[in-house]
Request: fold
Amino acid sequence: MHDVVDLRSDTLTLPTQAMRDAMARAEVGDDVWEEDPTVRRLEAVAARRTGKEAALFVSSGTQGNLVAVLAQTRAGQEVILDADSHVFNYEGAGAAVFGGSNIHIPTTGLVCLENTHNRHGGTCCTPEEIEAVAAAAHAAGVPVHLDGARLFNAAVALGRPAADFARPVDSLTFCLSKGLAAPVGSLVCGSRELVARARRVRKMLGGGMRQVGVLAAAGLIALESMVDRLAEDHANCRRLAEGLAKLPRIGLDLATVQTNIVIFRVDRDGGAADLVTGCLARKVKIHQTGPGTIRCVTHKDVDADDIARALEAFREITAAW
Reply:
């Protein structure tokens, strides 16, 4: 059990001691010159895990998605994506700002998917569903990008290799800094040609980094030892969701709780804000995503005892309703 139970996001994970040790002794070089051996190893591992030819280490998932979009589109083209997608809602409209837009009818330059889906409660797309979308897009000559920020959560939840999800798409990103617990970084994966273009775009955006092997070292530990344990986060999330479903004025669809995110409704005026305030007073941090909705995310720094404590806080608050 931890002093504070923080369920706001899996981005709040702290690096493990093994990561800190690896960072301290990392072999480094200038990555803009492509001479950082630890970064090269991380990129090779990422490419192998996703079944792609190459990969590029970037500072964040937002930067990775933007790099992938700009590497595959021209200014004035449209990108087809889910209205609830992270790219559309939470990335500062970077694709529109840097890619440009057209006031007339644009040509379609890219289709973007998201797996797991953040705003849909961490739900998963199967490799077959991704293949169906990619086949339609490719038939029209349009490439496909997968925002796989939590790709390994989907892989663990469905018991499928990450490469199965990556195979149908032309590019993908995944984050090291969420459930995998590294302090910084994401990977853009795709063909050698695409990654070469992405490397140029990364530099243009100011994303070229120097002796960044100190961060890549933590990413290697993340891929080596933090993937399989995601199942623990999923189990804790299910335990949390089942407990929440029993409480008054709380509404959620348990079928959507597939990985480490649960989004629920509070059917009471001001109830969501009251839950946030009441939980904080009990040293439980949660995140209000809308006037009547709350998102909770499990991760390595939340254990079963923490879930029990969070549920007790929810019970105490809702009992007065």
Summary: The chain is about 45% helix and 15% strand. The radius of gyration is 20 Å.
